[in-house]
Amino acid sequence: MDSDAFDAFYTTSFSRLVGQIYAMCGNVTEAQDCVQEAFVRAWDKRRMLDAEQSPEAWVRTVAYRLAVSRWRRVVRARQPADRAKQPQQSPAEPDVTRVALATALAKLPAEQRRAIVLHHLCDLPVAEIAREVGVPVGTIKARLSRGRAALAEQLRDEPVLDHGAV
After folding, report:
1. Which of 6, 55, 58, 141 is the most buried (most CB within 10 A)?
2. Backbone region of residue 119 per phi and psi (left: phi > 0; alpha: psi in -120 to 50; beta: other values)
3. Domain 96-154: which topology?
């Protein structure tokens, strides 16, 4: 296709193609931009375009693909940014209660601490903890009981007064 034939092709089909792409994408400005870009690309390939091979279909396909690509970019831009690419944020300072609990848990024997964490923080039933740890259910119950008593003592707000002393 020579430049005169291309000019005639552009003049006769631009408006029709804009209408078709507009019907597909729903935005007339976007349709005009995409069709114009498709014609720019067609100009570069005008020697390969043949009137018998429907150059209008080629331009329509390119314009539609451009519209879809633009739509995808807009959708991607509206999505929240990838957390992996965000600057590292320092974790919030733990509150006094959390620090006190962590300190009290650290003072417990390892077996009691493990039973308390698995039961109260991981929400595992006693039987499942016993299976995971490899001890009888009664042992887990005893560790939980002793661990709770030790935590209660360590986390008490007021010191225990000896009422027997005068």
Report:
1. 55
2. alpha
3. Arc Repressor Mutant, subunit A (1.10.10)
